[in-house]
Write the structure tokens for this entry.
Amino acid sequence: MANDSEKLPGTQAQGRDDRDDTVLKVDHVSKYFKLPTEQATGLKQAFINWTKGIKGYRKQQVLDDISFEVKRGDFFGIVGRNGSGKSTLLKLISGIYYPNGGSIQVKGKLVPFIELGVGFNPELTGRENVYLNGSLLGFTREEVDAMYDDIVEFAELGDFMDQKLKNYSSGMQVRLAFSVAIKAQGDILVLDEVLAVGDEAFQRKCNDYFMAVKKDPSKTVILVTHDMESIKKYCDHALLIKDGKIVISGDKDAVAEQYTLDNFHTDKKPGKDGVYENGLSERCPLLKTIAVSPQVVSSADEFKFDVEYRFDGPEDFYLAIALHDIRRGGITYDTGMKGFKLTEYGHHTVHFSMPLNLFNDGEFRLVTSLRIPNAADPNATDALAVAIDSNACEFAVRDPRNSQYALLSDRAMTIRQI
């Protein structure tokens, strides 16, 4: 990992400026690889290719103008389908690759965990591999000494640390590699598709660890995963990459829903011009949440809104509605995956009303998803379309009786001494 951005322009610069809580800044980063198209077997052929303007390779653009920031204490998710560029992005962040354009700035000690067991030597003992891996991650022997007992305790391999790694079972190797990564005393932990490691008991231990990390304001985790439940469970914020570009950044639930939608395969051909609004698809080309009430209302009002959709079946289908708190973050209310079962196919509008007497002042967003039954689980549904961006509905509560800090009004919720 480069420690001096002046040596390699556009790469990482590390420092510690506690006046700014941004620990990772990715600024207009682009990355391409050169793929050979024609090989020159000699100087004559190379000269001929040069005179004809044949470069012998083509550029594969993997990432294009990627920008985002991660704050100290954040649990930040990066998702995308295979080939979207997310693993390349992690390798850029970790200093394994360097960008062709833009810059990456990291504050603090970054511990990358890109692939399980990378840097381990099967001919060395477990103990020796811990020190080897720690050295590769940039830790001194004294720093590894301080971490060693925690690593061994978490991996539950105290009786095996002086055996050669080649004698370990695959599960034991996974536990040791994972424990080295998460117990290393770094400021930023970078994980790529490694949450489902080990047996069930070890996964529960990892879950407890990550829930504790979420509460530690000094630790930052960057997670790449295909598991949207992990995104919803652990992450504070997330972004979705598609074809090397950021599609959505910020709200983890919107990212998870869009990722699910992108993975929903249909045999039908694309619609008009093959283009749909963000969150929509050929099977549901229209889904919009529309404010009927004014978009600035008081707590005494009911907020009325419509959901307009087009869906031609033949499955059962539902509208699920979530209320997002824009200022404070998180989902204030959710109807659940089977919120409202509808029966009318085609192009229709459904009317809704929601009381606001519970809320203090704030800004809110209504996000609607049209869902169909999950083939494997009768209690679950899959998102066929999500009304996000301009198809979502935003409104604000403003009332002189309200406070600004907490979500719930003291008229709705009061703690009394007894």
Remarks:
- The domain at 280-397 is CATH 2.60.40.1930 (Immunoglobulin-like).
- Helices lie at 43-51, 86-93, 126-136, 141-155, 170-183, 200-214, 228-234, 252-262.
- The first strand starts at residue 13 and ends at 15.
- Residues 14 and 107 are 5 Å apart (CA to CA).
